[in-house]
Design brief:
alpha+beta; Chitinase A, domain 3; 32% strand; elongated; seven-stranded antiparallel beta sheet; 3 helices
Length: 301
């Protein structure tokens, strides 16, 4: 009986201790939230700013309006300039405005991206100032030049947000291209479904045979017409193993099985089926790619 009573008392003591610890954490969090709110209100007052408070606790004011601008959407590529400062006006980080190098990222809905916590409050082409409480800007973690539990200011020039699929459709319509087939493929880098526009420009003479090697002539271009690579004027050809493993960008892997020997075709596909956010020589990050392809021969391995 004594042992049983001791176990009960010990359990009560542990629960009480845990409750006290949790209560202390809650009180500390509440105190930090209050301190942040006080700092933010004092800053807004000292700068004579007129700001709205979003439901997530971020304060903001739009300094340049664009009511007809497009809002950010899941799967968009976003380009923007930003300046992040402490509330004592010390600049922590910024994009390169002088070099015209905006910060570019893909909107995958990730909750660790600071910008995705407030960009839905503004539209493309707008400029705005945001005051972000510490719980949304690193919380208790300290960063270089930013103490823990510090609210921050972020000034944004929202340059461009766009969905590549719509941009490609606009390009196709503007250039009066006739799409033979729109091929769906799930990007291995983003997990989103993208589409390859397959445009046949010359009919082929024979089906490709699984296991054989197709010889390709190609020209790779950007949407502005710049050709970043081509083997058309060279004697070499690009090898494509029919139905096998190939070290090619995903858009070509999705499109090439549709072609026939002797056929010419153009493939247009978004960066999710190309090089994604990785810049290559002469290919900026998040670039839509265009490939003109001709299958000139088919041989055994």
């Amino acid at each position: 009986m004594k042992i049983r009573l001791l176990q009960i008392l010990l359990g009560i003591a542990i629960i009480s201790s845990l409750s006290a610890c949790l209560s202390k954490v809650v009180l500390e969090d509440d105190l930090i939230t209050q301190q942040n709110e006080t700092k933010i209100q004092q800053y807004i007052s000292s700068k004579k700013l007129t700001m709205q408070k979003a439901t997530n606790g971020i304060y903001y004011t739009i300094t340049k309006s664009n009511p007809t601008g497009r809002q950010i959407a899941l799967g968009d590529t976003v380009r923007l300039h930003y300046v992040i400062s402490r509330l004592d006006d010390f600049k922590i980080d910024s994009s390169s405005v002088l070099k015209n190098q905006p910060f570019t990222f893909f909107n995958n809905g990730g909750n660790t991206n600071l910008f995705l916590k407030f960009l839905s409050l503004i539209k493309e082409g707008e400029q705005a100032t945001f005051i972000i409480p510490s719980e949304l800007a690193g919380d208790a973690q300290a960063f270089p030049n930013l103490p823990a539990n510090s609210p921050i200011r972020c000034d944004i020039s929202f340059l461009k947000t766009y969905g590549e699929e719509q941009t490609i459709d606009d390009y196709v319509a503007k250039n009066r291209l006739v799409v033979t087939e729109k091929i769906s493929a799930v990007s291995t880098t983003t997990g989103f479904t993208n589409y390859v526009r397959y445009i046949r420009t010359k009919d082929g003479a024979a089906d490709l045979i699984a296991g054989k090697v197709a010889k390709l002539k190609y020209t790779g271009k950007l949407m502005n017409g710049f050709a970043f690579d081509s083997n058309v004027s060279r004697t070499d050809s690009l090898n494509y193993t029919v139905g096998g493993s190939n070290n090619l960008v995903q858009g070509l892997i999705a499109g090439l099985p549709k072609m026939r020997l002797g056929e010419k075709a153009t493939f247009i596909f978004p960066s999710g089926l190309g090089y994604g956010g990785s810049a290559r020589s002469n290919i900026p990050a998040y670039s839509t790619l265009i490939f003109d392809i001709e299958i000139v021969a088919m041989k055994d391995k």
